[in-house]
């Protein structure tokens, strides 16, 4: 599995520029006026992972297939979006379909780029978007509660659980807290996810800074980082303009450009790592002569579930997983060397996959 992240923010904060950089296309029009993105653009990007390159080098795989992740560029939201202002509810519906929110905040001064609120204040910008998501959730919660009353009278046990969750979410939002602050037990998680509350989604604040501050950030991004820690969210500093320029360069040219700017890596890599950590995701690998491939799973995934990401039949007919830790695979120069060193393990159905595992699944067909 990958994950689908919605890029949101006020107009003219750099959302479409970032999307262009991430997807290495110019599909999203970047213009200095509100609502230049009329339809949500969707793009898939490869997840950069140096470990996969190393595995290919050792195994001599004919092809390399990285993990993928999806970004959705959503038009700029404004005050009143929950009531249909701007481009309103259609874009709130698009956010609802995403696993996480990458909230782009303008953290730079530029008189040539208009700010819809007439000032630069990323904390207030974040509050505007959060408020709109919470107001939309309140409207959705009230409708759901009304619809559940009849089901509860009919002794629908799921409806009872959903009603309790909705009331807890409503209480949090009415106290000024997003739904993601609600404590949800493990056995309630499935029902909670089915509520599709906008303010329950994990948030990654993307601080869009000017070129000179692309490495260390600035006072604006420092304030955002502090806010993110207080909220239990994540933040990352990126210069969308630099990222877009890098995306148009060849790999060696991009490396030289980054070096000239004093940056160790592209912002895309930082963004993806922050997103993985936010959603509790990790990677395992399958390696052979034909291909080396990265697969994304949630932390805590069992071996059969990991096999199911490749194909449902692998999970249903799971026998065992031949497992080599990434570090061992590299140290002992591949599968055969790892096997001879006693580093290949046969793991059963209860094994929890570790980040970087090189796996081969045995299964009944």
Could you please describe the fold and organization of this structure?
It contains 14 helices and twelve strands. It is an alpha/beta fold. A six-stranded mixed beta sheet has the order 2-4-1-5-6-7, with helices on both faces. A three-stranded mixed beta sheet has the order 3-9-8, sandwiched between helices. A three-stranded antiparallel beta sheet has the order 11-10-12. Strand 8 and strand 9 form a beta hairpin. About 4% of the residues have low confidence.
Using the CA coordinates, give the radius of gyration: 23 Å
Whole-number mean pLDDT: 86
Q: How many extended strands?
A: 12
Please mark out the parts with pLDDT under 50 across 5 or more consecutive residues, or reply none: 25-38
Multimeric organization = single chain
Shape: flat
Structural class: alpha/beta
Strand arrangement in the largest pleated sheet: 2-4-1-5-6-7
Task: Give the helix proportion (percent range).
Answer: 40-55%
> Approximately how much beta-strand content do the residues carry?
15-25%
What is the CA–CA distance across the termini?
A: 22 Å
In this structure, how is the largest beta sheet organized? 6 strands, mixed
Number of helices: 14
Q: Tell me the series of helices and strands, N- to C-terminal.
A: EHEHEEHEHHHEHEHHHEEHHEHHEE
